[in-house]
Amino acid sequence: MSTSTPHTAALAEPDPQPCPSRSAARTAAAALCAVLGTGLLTAAALTGWAERHAASSPPTPEAAYRTAGSLWRAAPADSLFPPVLTGADAGPGGADRTWTRVALAPDSDCGPALAPDWRAALAPTGCTRVLRATYADATRSSLIAVGMVFTPADATAMAGLRGRLGAPPAFGFPDARRAAWTASVLPDAPVVVYAVSAFADGRTVEAPVPAEEAMRKNATGAVAQAGLGHEAKAVADRMEGTVRSLASPKAAKAAKAAHAATSAKAATAAAPGSGFRPGSGFGPDSGSAGSTR
């Protein structure tokens, strides 16, 4: 019997898989970081652009309305009632005017600051706070008491006040000295702005007259001839402009620039000797659509 040594089959070892080198791993990580970094930088750039765009855009009317309603506690007194007011063409015949603040009242609850008829008129809207000040003209011949009444009401409720407000109370002199007055319900703020003028020499007046009546071309009487209607209206106009500017400064600035451009174009187009006089220079905020009569 013969024997033979069996041949054992040698198992082939599998080929080792190539392992990524450290340099390749670092390259991939760097690429991933670059992608992530680019995304983060892009997001930051977009966020910054959005923030700058929002900052450069005027607030919405709704936001400006809410801001205006909080000015009584958020704005400095000198911003709401500047120490000096100027009015180009604000007096009778287009005379320039300057007023200096001579008294500033602490902010007040509505009850002590307003007369019964005003409190009754404001019952549907509510009343948050009243701010008041008194100005004197440059000649010290007239006094103008001005006030801002803040409410928590919306624009619809505020519109219901128009035509319901009589002669306002005055801070700085008694009611018997009230000569001319105006009161405006702002359409774009929960605020009533009023002004009432008086002779500085202490004389009394039988009854205060609406400023617009005293400003009529052929108006007679001491109040009209002294320009007290113009004084009350001009100071009230500036208070309205102040509220709008503080609530929406960018919108007010843009509107004022547009108004100035329009006035300049109209002045250029006016024929010499035609009697045309450019706008008063009050700016677009000088209107008083809500003035009561």
The SS-based structural class is alpha+beta
- Strand order of the main beta sheet, please? 1-2-3-4-6-5-7
Q: Count all strands and give the number.
A: 7
Main sheet overview = 7 strands, mixed
What is the H/E order?
A: HHHHEEHHEEHEEEHHHH
Strand content bin: 15-25%
Discrete helix count: 11
C-alpha Rg, in Å? Answer: 35 Å
Low-confidence stretches: 1-12, 49-55, 262-293
Overall 3D form: elongated
- What's the end-to-end separation, in Å? 141 Å
Which bin fits the share of residues in helices? Answer: 25-40%
The whole-number mean of residue pLDDT values reads 77
Explain the overall architecture.
The termini are far apart. It is elongated and about 100 Å long. The chain has helices at 22-56, 61-69, 71-74, 77-80, 110-113, 116-121, 155-159, 211-214, 222-225, 228-247, 249-269, and strands spanning 84-87, 97-104, 129-137, 142-150, 180-185, 191-199, 209-210. By secondary structure, it is α+β, with helices and mostly antiparallel strands. Helix 2 (61-69) crosses helix 10 and helix 10 (228-247) crosses helix 11. Strands 1-2-3-4-6-5-7 form a 7-stranded mixed sheet.
List the helices and strands and how they pair.
Elements: H1 22-56, H2 61-69, H3 71-74, H4 77-80, E1 84-87, E2 97-104, H5 110-113, H6 116-121, E3 129-137, E4 142-150, H7 155-159, E5 180-185, E6 191-199, E7 209-210, H8 211-214, H9 222-225, H10 228-247, H11 249-269
Parallel strand pairs: 5-7
Antiparallel strand pairs: 1-2, 2-3, 3-4, 4-6, 5-6
Helix pairs in contact: 2-10, 10-11
Index terms:
single chain; 40% helix; alpha+beta; disordered N terminus; seven-stranded mixed sheet; 293 residues; 16% strand
